[in-house]
């Protein structure tokens, strides 16, 4: 057998391995899951991965500017998290229940897709009461999954009044893992939101963007580093476990996204001029890659995407990627590994654990160059 043939067999072996979920497993010590954000957004730790040299640096997040130059473009997800957690009671029994609003299904009928807890107590026909004096009532009209329900809110008033009332009663929808560690605090309403959040519709924050400060954005402007945005409304699917070993069989939940022609023009002008494109977070990366044309350009997009990126995959637009440290076997960790190279990112995570970097929602950051 020739050397070339042996190499091809080995390459196919690596490809097969990298498409297996178990390849992306590792042991994450619970004490490394961040319970709280850093005191200052841009003073979280930053691990810098150089793909070309396989070198790793340890910096602070505000040092990200050292890796960007005039004409480079930073692309971020400007989705805004709405207060999607409602605490209420079940009719007659008064049992405490939690309702996690996922998305509005029908504005006119005020139908919503929700997750309920404890699910075993919530059946079709039940009425749920929220707020002081039971000011908001919802009726369960369908079961969608073991914990999923469709509810109809019974509210006399305009759409504007209804939305205002929902938001006045709602709480910041921190991930379950954080709620198991501590109570939701007042500061979460601000810190579980990027400073550039504009388009309301997410039930999960694009966490890589949580590290950016207003001072950093001002420094981008001063240094002629371009900032542009798109919208992808992050859903509960970001926290769902992948349950298949063969990654090609996994299906992501669809999420709504909007990418303007203006943002596309900024990105393509920079690419054509030889400048770098820095993509902030896995949600932004999925949105951009969902809008790539056959010609290798990015075009305006309004719709939904369920794109799942895993090895082997060739990225078309991004030269740099900012991300957090994610959980084992998560879609976010798999995408970061795909962009940085599975072996290299595995090594970086092993180092991060030894160096006590913080993981997950309020954790530290990584940039892959």
Write a concise keyword list for the protein shown above.
Thrombin, subunit H, 9-stranded mixed sheet, QueA-like, 9 helices, 2 domains, 369 residues, 6-stranded antiparallel barrel, alpha/beta, globular
Secondary structure topology:
Layout: H1 3-18, E1 45-50, E2 55-60, E3 73-77, E4 79-81, E5 85-90, E6 96-106, E7 111-117, E8 127-130, E9 136-143, E10 148-154, H2 159-169, H3 176-181, H4 188-191, E11 199-202, H5 214-222, E12 226-232, E13 255-259, H6 261-272, E14 277-280, H7 281-290, E15 301-305, E16 320-324, H8 331-340, H9 342-354, E17 365-368
Parallel strand pairs: 1-17, 3-12, 3-14, 4-11, 14-16
Antiparallel strand pairs: 1-2, 5-6, 5-8, 6-7, 7-10, 8-9, 9-10, 12-13, 13-15, 16-17
Task: Describe the protein.
With 369 residues, the protein is of the alpha/beta class. The protein has two domains: 24-81 and 188-368, QueA-like; 85-171, QueA-like (Thrombin, subunit H), CATH 2.40.10.240. The protein has nine helices and 17 strands. The chain has a nine-stranded mixed beta sheet. A six-stranded antiparallel beta barrel has the order 5-6-7-10-9-8. A hairpin with a 4-residue loop joins strand 6 (96-106) and strand 7 (111-117). The protein starts with a helix and ends with a strand.
Q: What is the molecular shape?
A: globular
For the residues shown, what is the average pLDDT? 92
Which second-level CATH architecture of the largest domain applies? 3-Layer(aba) Sandwich
* SS field, number of helical segments: 9
Q: Beta-strand percentage?
A: 25-35%
Low-confidence region ranges: 4-14
Pairing-aware structural class of the strands and helices? alpha/beta
Task: Please outline the major beta sheet.
Answer: 9 strands, mixed
């Amino acid at each position: 057998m020739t050397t070339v043939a042996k190499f091809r067999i080995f390459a196919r072996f690596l490809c097969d391995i990298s498409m297996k979920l178990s390849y992306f497993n590792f042991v994450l010590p619970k004490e490394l899951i961040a319970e709280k954000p850093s005191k200052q957004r841009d003073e979280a730790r930053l691990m810098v991965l150089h793909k070309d040299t396989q070198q790793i640096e340890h910096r602070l997040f505000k040092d990200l500017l050292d890796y960007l130059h005039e004409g480079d473009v930073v692309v971020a997800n400007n989705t805004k998290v709405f207060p999607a957690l409602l605490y209420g009671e079940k009719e007659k029994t008064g049992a405490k229940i939690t309702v996690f609003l996922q998305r509005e299904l029908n504005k006119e009928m005020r139908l919503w897709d929700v997750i309920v807890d404890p699910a075993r107590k919530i059946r079709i026909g039940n009425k749920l009461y929220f707020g002081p004096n039971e000011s908001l009532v919802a009726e369960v009209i369908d079961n969608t999954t073991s914990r999923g329900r469709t509810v109809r809110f019974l509210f006399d008033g305009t759409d504007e009044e209804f939305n205002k009332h929902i938001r006045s009663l709602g709480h910041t929808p921190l991930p379950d893992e954080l709620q198991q560690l501590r109570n939701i605090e007042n500061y979460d309403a601000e810190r579980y939101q990027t400073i550039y959040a504009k388009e309301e519709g997410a039930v999960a924050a694009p966490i890589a963007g949580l590290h950016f400060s207003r001072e950093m954005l001002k420094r981008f402007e001063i240094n002629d580093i371009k900032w542009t945005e798109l919208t992808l409304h992050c859903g509960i699917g970001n926290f769902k476990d992948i349950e298949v070993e063969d990654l090609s069989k996994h299906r992501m939940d669809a999420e709504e996204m909007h990418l303007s022609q203006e943002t596309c023009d900024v990105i393509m002008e920079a690419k054509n001029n030889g400048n770098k494109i820095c993509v902030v977070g896995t949600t932004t990366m999925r949105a951009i890659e969902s809008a790539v044309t056959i010609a290798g350009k990015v075009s305006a997009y309004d719709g939904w995407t369920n794109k799942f990126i895993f090895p082997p995959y060739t990225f078309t637009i991004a030269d740099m990627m900012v991300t957090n440290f994610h959980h084992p076997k998560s879609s976010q960790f798999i995408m970061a590994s795909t962009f940085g190279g599975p072996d290299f990112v595995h090594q970086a995570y092993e180092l991060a654990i030894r160096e006590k970097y913080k993981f997950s929602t309020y954790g530290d950051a990584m940039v892959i160059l």
